[in-house]
Write a structure and sequence with these properties.
By secondary structure, this protein is α/β, with parallel strands linked by helices. It contains 13 helices and 15 strands. The radius of gyration is 20 Å and the shape is globular.
Length: 379
């Protein structure tokens, strides 16, 4: 089968790899109809992780069940499903507590597993024609038959729940003001989720004009940090107080306003300045314990200079960690079905799988309005 294979920094190729087979009674094989390129994939693509050449990318996957193991009870051939990027067992201490992003079973020695991602277990990615899904009764979310809402449902694999998770970590409630740093796919989903949760005003901070335009289209207030200090811009629009809540949707590859160099802690420190005393921060943006391309020795070891004194002085609280997708995906699916949510506004390009190398290059460079790319290996 064809799959997107990592070759080295800034290079992927569509190659023939072995088609997966059922290996366990609880497995299913999914014929992939949609798979998305994630900002997290770019960390590997750019050589900013320990990913080795040969890994098949793809942790945002949906499709049609092609084959089932004899132990699978709730799924059958022909079912349309979407899978959380988290690979989870469903029965360990963390899974039963709804922390499926930190499963203790699927990646021995580490809390958490994912498809096609470095250090997240042996699970091959789904930017391919077929995908093996373990613990399938637990990991597959059934969808209505047909092709309706395809570009909405694919976002249930990661970015829609992750954006919602950022709001959950920040405990966004009706009437709150919220600052979202980062207008990429997760940031836009966080802003959208904050509005769905009843926030009165949502600011989105970025410097890419297409992203800021998308933010404005959904009812958020765009803040271009290239035009001035975002903390000051937001405080000017909140009577000097700052926002009630804040979300970091950028992570460790944050840049200075001039975009000429990386400053990994800049978003965290900006949020500390933006959110009012006793407010709450949600941090779904990715931070790693080791970054080979970090701008200094400390950041290469995952050690960042964060304004902890000011955070303490202001009595700010924070929540961190990757999204436990299964905590949210059913209710978000049902909101899509009922017409209450349309997250596909963030999708800019839908392309066949063989255009993946070009799509990675353009998405990484933020050119031609590439905000979110969905690949279609099969119809």
């Amino acid at each position: 089968m064809k799959a997107v294979v990592y070759k080295g920094p800034f290079e992927v190729a569509v190659e023939e790899v072995t088609k997966p087979k059922v290996q366990h009674p609880n497995d299913v094989i999914v014929r992939v109809t949609s798979t998305a390129i994630c900002g997290s994939d770019l960390h590997m693509y750019e050589g900013r992780t320990a990913a080795e050449p040969g890994i098949v990318f793809g942790h945002e996957n949906m499709g049609i069940v092609e084959d089932t193991g004899e132990g699978v009870t709730s799924l059958k051939r022909g079912d349309r499903v979407v899978m959380p990027f988290n690979v989870a067992c469903g029965f360990c201490k963390n899974c039963v507590a709804d922390f499926t992003g930190f499963c203790l079973t699927v990646n021995p020695g580490f809390a958490g597993g994912a498809y096609g991602y470095v250090a997240m277990g042996p699970w091959t990615g789904g930017q391919a024609e077929y995908l093996r899904v373990p613990y399938a009764d637990f990991n597959c979310l059934k969808l209505p038959e047909g092709k309706e809402h395809e570009s909405d449902f694919i976002l249930l694999a990661d970015i829609f729940p992750t954006g919602y998770h950022g709001c959950e970590l920040a405990q966004v409630t009706p009437g709150d003001s919220v600052a979202v740093y980062g207008g990429g796919p997760v940031g836009l989903m966080a802003a959208y989720s904050a509005l769905l949760r009843g926030a009165k005003k949502v600011f989105v901070v970025d410097r890419v004009l297409e992203r800021l335009q998308k933010a404005q289209e959904i009812g958020a207030v765009p803040i271009n940090f290239a035009e001035g200090n975002p903390v000051e811009q937001i405080k000017e629009q909140t009577d000097g107080e700052g926002t009630d809540k804040g979300v970091d949707a950028v992570g460790y590859q944050a840049h200075t306003p001039s975009a000429d160099r990386e400053e990994p802690a800049t978003v965290l420190n900006s949020l500390v300045g933006t959110v009012r005393p006793t407010g709450m921060l949600g941090i779904p943006g990715l931070y790693v314990p080791a970054d080979p391309g970090g701008p200094d020795e400390n950041s290469q070891r995952g050690m960042l200079l964060v304004s902890i004194g000011k955070l303490f002085e202001k009595g700010l609280r924070l929540g961190t960690g990757q999204c436990n997708v299964k905590r949210y995906n059913r209710q978000l699916r049902d909101m899509i079905i009922e017409g209450r949510a349309r997250p596909s506004f963030v999708v800019s390009h839908e392309l066949p799988l063989d255009q993946a190398p070009s799509a990675y290059d353009k998405f990484d460079k933020r050119v031609e309005g590439y905000t979110k790319v969905v690949l279609h290996p099969q119809s």
